[in-house]
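TA notes, week 10

Several of you asked for a full example with nothing omitted. So below is the full record: structure tokens for the whole chain, then the designed sequence directly under it. When grading your own attempts, check the secondary structure regions first.
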């Protein structure tokens, strides 16, 4: 029996704002709940009910989280008529068994699927078999969570073994790149992307300019936050 998904928002058509599919037309499914509590999180309304993040806002789960049948979510996503569906959060792999029927139906309609994850959960074999691409964003020490909570070796090892996985690190400055390098070496990560921290266009541009040369020198990829450059912190775009 299918279980409902805990959904924060569904929107589109829009563009993928980060990583390898930057600029691609897509639809977004944002799920609720997260097992981490990054202080600089740009979607605290999916998990922060106490005001723990930098914003200091205690969001109301009664307003932010909605139980939605898989069939309803499927119909809403298909109505956007996009080739790419991005499933984000929160931490979507916290609901991955409930995602299996949705992913199966979407791929049955010929959709490409990317799941944004913090890398603390190994992916379910059925999601892997369905051809889901995983955009993995392990969190660095500046996120505020302790190492043992944000870095789960078995999960990162399994995700790094998938040929379509990419690894995206949020960085404040060039000093963060050494921490990234240690994780890249430890887990033999490939397809590495560095993304500037920032919830406003000015912040993103500032940090991206500081990072760009050093990222290129290390042989990694640089991604902006296109949605932030276009719309700042506006939701549903």
């Amino acid at each position: 029996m299918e279980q409902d998904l805990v959904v924060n928002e569904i929107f589109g058509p829009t563009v993928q704002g980060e990583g390898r599919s930057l600029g691609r037309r897509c639809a977004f499914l944002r799920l609720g709940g997260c097992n981490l509590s990054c202080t600089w999180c740009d979607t605290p309304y999916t998990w922060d009910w106490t005001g723990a993040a930098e914003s200091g806002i205690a969001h109301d789960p009664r307003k932010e989280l909605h139980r939605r049948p898989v069939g309803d979510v499927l119909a809403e996503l298909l109505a956007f008529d996009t080739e790419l569906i991005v499933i984000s959060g929160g931490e979507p792999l916290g609901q991955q068994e409930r995602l299996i029927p949705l992913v199966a139906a979407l791929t049955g309609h010929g959709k490409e699927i990317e799941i944004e994850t913090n890398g603390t959960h190994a992916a379910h074999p059925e999601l892997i078999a369905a051809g889901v691409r995983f955009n993995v964003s392990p969190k660095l020490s500046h996120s505020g969570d302790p190492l043992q909570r944000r870095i789960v070796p078995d999960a990162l090892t399994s995700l790094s073994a998938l040929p379509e996985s990419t690894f995206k690190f949020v960085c404040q400055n060039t000093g963060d790149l050494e921490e990234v390098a240690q994780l890249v070496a430890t887990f033999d990560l490939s397809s590495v992307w560095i993304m500037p921290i920032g919830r406003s266009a000015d912040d993103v541009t500032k940090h991206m300019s500081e990072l760009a040369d050093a990222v290129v020198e290390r042989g990694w990829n640089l991604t902006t936050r296109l949605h932030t450059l276009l719309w700042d912190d506006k939701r549903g775009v």
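The CA atoms of residues 73 and 102 lie 8 Å apart. Use that as a sanity check on your answer.
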